[in-house]
Amino acid sequence: MNRELIQANGIEAVHWVRLCVEFIGAFIVALGVAIAVWHFVWAMFRREAANFTAIRLVLARYLALALEFQLGADILSTAVDPTMNQIARLAAIAVIRTALNYFLSREMREESRAQSTEQRVDDHAAAAS
To answer: What's the pLDDT tens digit per position in 15-40?
Structure first.
């Protein structure tokens, strides 16, 4: 009986941890959206051409981090009650989120590289003037 109580409390604790991790992931998405909107509005307020690539990169970094937290929450959920159906669901979610994260990271690297190249060209042109 004591062992069953400890196990039930452990499962309950994991559910609370999972809920906290999911909340953190959702908070990171909301924070990233707010920061990206702030950058966009700030550019519009200053009457500058908004650098959409830079704004997208800011948001992409937050989304990539949030995906990791959400995957962690799914792993915790499956760890306490691993039925075959839940394991299959976790595998599908992990594959989808990993693919999303991979392509998001690849796009961030490519955009950062392109921005660096543009900056070097601009710096070189300014130095030549």
So the answer is: 899 999 999 999 999 999 999 999 98
